[in-house]
Amino acid sequence: MTLDQLPEIAPQEKKSPLNQTQLERSQGLDFDLAIVGGGIVGLTLACALKDSGLRVALIEAQSPEQTAARRQAYAMSLLSGRIFEGIGVWPQISPHITHFQRVRLSDADYPKEVVFRPEDLKTKAVYYGAEHGVLITALQNCVRQCKSVSYLCPAQLIEVDYQPQAVQLKVQMAGQERTLRAQLMVAADGARSRIRQQAGIGSMGWKYWQSCITAVLKPEKSHLDTAYERFWPDGPFAILPLPGNRCQIVWTVPHAKAEAILALPREEFLAQLSHNYGAQMGALTLVGEPRLFKVQLMQSNCYVQPRLALMGDAAHCCHPVGGQGLNMGIRDAAALSQVLQASFARGEDIGDLRALKRYERWRRRENWLVLGFTDFLNRCFSNTFLPLVIVRRLGIHILQVALPIKRLMLRLMTGLFGRTPNLARHSVEP
Ligand SMILES: Cc1cc2nc3c(=O)[nH]c(=O)nc-3n(C[C@H](O)[C@H](O)[C@H](O)COP(=O)(O)OP(=O)(O)OC[C@H]3O[C@@H](n4cnc5c(N)ncnc54)[C@H](O)[C@@H]3O)c2cc1C
């Protein structure tokens, strides 16, 4: 789509006729809301609003092919699966991801471990392993079929002007500039969100002393849909099973060590990695080049301002331990879509601070819990202080035998705690 085409394509089709207040609000606006950032989180919100009657612009700087080409895989929670099912994209996703049958949590080479199984929650899987390309392609296809969403891609937001009744966005697409007006702008533009910074929204948090190395491997033996989270003194080491009997590792070590490991000849790299990986899947072959990520904990001081809402990594970031970051963003999108639809149905201004505060109250508190949990896990286990080692190994014994505590932890990790968004309520996938 080009910017010239917008007036014809900008959807006027509404599922239900607009009431008088809604009509007055729409006058002179190109869209009801503009989402900036067409990563998984931005796309999830656009898809979640497809039948809402709201006119949505989705603005993504990279081409669809570029956004889909990111080589990353995620541990995806049961709740995220249910949200995707509520949106209607689950049939496109489910056959191309792994459904974990075991998650094994252990402390370095201590022989005892905690094993999480689907039976613990009476579900069919404990978690999922999904590649970025699979998720984003399903969501992009959904958005393309949706008449109420204008997918502007590649298009870049270059300037914003917040006004009392609207937000004005200057967008560049195929060498043209165009100004769009909407009631609300949603920032899903990632961890280095320029929108958050330019709006003067501060944040709290810290950069970790560790970096993460990710790599995809092909083991000799079957991974049996089993994921591992092994805590070594340097940091957690996760193994995510992927389709085609591949596994992605997320290997956390202090910065200098991470760079040194990455610079090793590939045979030595594999030898060091195999020590943390364990011998359970036989010999390992590297598929593609390993990559390095810096990690941080960040929580925005607020998620909303008049005419602006933040979500996903633009609002918060966490340590990759436990695979929570993207799952929090998907849940933000489901919550925000619910709040916006309720405001719209009541004839309220969806960019008004009072309406947006409902989203912030819902999600900011829940996200604190997850940020705190991931930070606790990382600090408690990346540690050789003897009394702490004794306590956490005792904790492993207790978790393995005390089912209610194990279930509680599992519910927290899989997103089955807190307020469930409506989109996830009618899932047939347990
Ligand atoms: C090593 C590692 C492992 C991880 N593993 C997991 C895991 O197992 N499970 C999990 O849940 N999470 C995991 N995460 C976290 C996860 O990667 C992020 O939380 C998630 O990718 C954030 O998605 P997002 O859509 O918010 O942001 P992004 O994916 O960063 O998307 C932002 C989009 O905005 C676009 N954009 C930016 N500025 C503009 C602009 N001005 N105009 C238009 N478009 C713009 C960008 O092009 C981009 O496409 C991991 C993170 C790391 C570092």
Describe the structure.
- Helix content is 37%, strand content 29%.
- It has helices spanning 6-9, 20-26, 40-48, 64-68, 78-87, 90-93, 118-121, 132-144, 194-198, 255-263, 266-277, 325-345, 353-381, 386-401, 403-413, and strands at 31-36, 56-59, 73-76, 98-99, 102-107, 113-116, 128-131, 149-152, 156-162, 167-173, 176-187, 203-219, 226-232, 235-242, 246-254, 284-300, 304-305, 308-310, 316-317.
- The strands form three sheets. Strands 1, 2, 8, 9, 10, 11, 17 and 18 form an eight-stranded mixed β-sheet that branches.
- The longest helix is centred in the last third of the chain and has 29 residues, at 353-381.
- The two termini are 39 Å apart.
- The model is unreliable at 7-16 (pLDDT under 50).
- It binds flavin-adenine dinucleotide.
- Flavin-adenine dinucleotide is lined by residues 36-42, 59-62, 67, 74-75, 156-157, 188-190, 194, 212, 214, 250, 293, 295, 312-313, 320, 323-327, 329.
